[in-house]
Amino acid sequence: MGPKTIPPDGFNYNQRIADQENEQMLLNLVRLRYLEMPRFLNVASVINTYSRGGGAGVNGNLNPVNSPIGANINGNWSDRPTITYTPMSGQAFAQSLLTPLPPSVIFFLIQSGWSSHRLMRLSNSMINGLHNEIGTPGERRQGDAEFHELLDILHQLQLDGALGMHFKGDWPKVDVELVLPKQGRTDSIEKSIRRFKEILKLDQDAHIFEIEYGVILEKENQILVQTHSIMEMLANLSWYIDVPEAHVIEGRTESSFKPDDADLIHVRVSKEKPKDAFKSIQFRDHWFYIDDRDVASKNTFTVIQILFSMANNGSGSVGPLISIGN
């Protein structure tokens, strides 16, 4: 019986744990929107024990006048899952939330095919002095026009196959260089490369550029990125979330931030449970959800989960998924 339980156990627990992680991330985004501390709970292990048993019997009476014969059959089945939850806390975990993401993580994901526009806008606050948008109540500003133009060019170069990178060193201490063609194969690519260098004040004759974390340029032909920490990224995104107008009027939270560009993520709110939600959670007597047809928001939500996973240093360790059958 043991091997037969693996397919259903694997699929079912995988789905439920994935749902729990997604709903937890959405819940923490909403918590930050109401200025509450986020809390993460990790499923450390799942041990599922199955047991089965049965019995049969026959009884009778040797009395020649009255000799009834009886029989009985019984069986039992039990499914006893033991699920262990580990609160993700402590200094190491807090440090992973508050430490800015290394540029190598962002550009590694870009090299892997994820949208450079979405990743850079989500994870960066500044590139060579050009500012991204910030949505928190303490500091709200729209992004610089050249910052958004730069991300559009970077994304187009990625789509055109004209964006390369060099990675040097062992993970996680990896140095990154951005590599552009010496000569674009089309006029459009050549024009994009020239404008990219012009915006960042790079040498038009150079084609390899060091990428570093920082604010102040220390040498020529360097691309300095100031990245968000996971906490900064989540806090910034939380102010895109729709909330009931009454909650703003009553002072429970502040007004939503509306960027000039399209929202990176659109979390909607409803009094009733939504019927067509990608993910939804109930909080303060309202339902907050991402519409299943909102592909852009679903994409951003997936990227958030990946970045969170890469930033986590393993302080909330994950144990094995075990199914035991008798």
Concise summary:
The chain is α+β, with helices and mostly antiparallel strands and 326 residues long. Helices cover 35% and strands 29% of the residues. The C terminus is likely disordered.
Give the helix/strand layout.
Blueprint: H1 6-33, E1 40-60, E2 69-88, H2 91-98, H3 103-111, H4 116-123, E3 124-127, E4 130-131, E5 134-136, E6 139-141, H5 145-159, E7 164-168, E8 175-179, H6 187-200, E9 208-213, E10 222-227, H7 230-238, H8 245-249, E11 268-270, E12 277-283, E13 286-291, H9 295-311, E14 321-325
Parallel strand pairs: 1-14, 9-10
Antiparallel strand pairs: 1-2, 3-4, 3-10, 5-6, 7-8, 8-9, 11-13, 12-13
Description:
By secondary structure, this protein is an alpha+beta fold. It has three domains: 1-52 and 84-99 and 229-326, no CATH class; 53-83, no CATH class; 102-227, no CATH class. The protein contains nine helices and 14 strands. The protein has helices at 6-33, 91-98, 103-111, 116-123, 145-159, 187-200, 230-238, 245-249, 295-311; strands at 40-60, 69-88, 124-127, 130-131, 134-136, 139-141, 164-168, 175-179, 208-213, 222-227, 268-270, 277-283, 286-291, 321-325. A six-stranded mixed sheet has the order 4-3-10-9-8-7. The model is unreliable at 315-326 (pLDDT under 50).
